[in-house]
């Protein structure tokens, strides 16, 4: 049995994340130690630890019975430190080596100008946040990781262990309070029901209703227009006020004069819209994907809603971070050379 195993390597990060949701931030120092516990005698030529960031995209296109795959890998940065030098033969036991890296603040990559460059960001830019598109086609990842390699001088026995680091950039501009949309999303509803009649039709009236256009026999309806007011821009940890307005319009003489409307509840979905590209021979290949990252239901307060179109709060202001247990999925909107991601709420 080989004494070389990745299970014998442990990467301990001592630095506390400085981000508000437990993420590391560009410019932060990442320090800790590598613990190596071989179960038997091993030969070691050297041990290295690498800190790197990668932006990776992959697109597969099918045409009939054939398919082509296009990949693009951009190294955002790569720092290497040799924490043990040999060659040495060491017995079974526990060995510790400290490490220390500083995450860069920005990254630069020279990419040949291509079509649809305006959808992305080129040249020198802030480090993008950790991101993973939950899709098999396209694939889009921004990852930051520590990788340890124990090299005995034999390529076959090189032992590796990695640890991913969640990294989000910090805005240099202080966050402003959530700003409401300039125009409000709207939805119209017409609800017809015979139960809205004060008395039910006789058989003769039912026949007249079916074969004539007598307005006095028209089925009563409730005709409302609904408007929502929500923030245009908000962070994952800002409290987000959401308001609702209903306006009732009488469209027929049989419509109820003043119906009572209550809010039973509503569901919000936050979706990412991601554009992805990868290099091909002579041109880029593009694909887009939508993904729901938050689906959250709010129970209504069962209070009466005004019918004049005035806005009322749906519920106490709530944070996006409180709507999901996967807070690291609430990645800030970003653009890189090959990935562009934004959000839409419905």
Automatic annotation (TrEMBL):
SUPFAM superfamilies listed in its UniProt record: E set domains
InterPro entries noted in UniProt: Arrestin-like_C (IPR014752), Arrestin-like_N (IPR011021), Arrestin_domain-protein (IPR050357), Ig_E-set (IPR014756)
Domain Arrestin-like N-terminal: residue ranges: 23-106
A Gene Ontology BP annotation from the UniProt entry: protein transport
Pfam hit, one: Arrestin_N
Taxonomy, superkingdom: Eukaryota
GO CC annotation: cytoplasm
Family under the similarity heading: Belongs to the arrestin family.
Summary of subunit composition and partner proteins: Interacts with hulA.
The protein's name: Arrestin-like N-terminal domain-containing protein
Organism from which the protein derives: Aureobasidium melanogenum (Aureobasidium pullulans var. melanogenum)
Lineage of producing organism: Eukaryota, Fungi, Dikarya, Ascomycota, Pezizomycotina
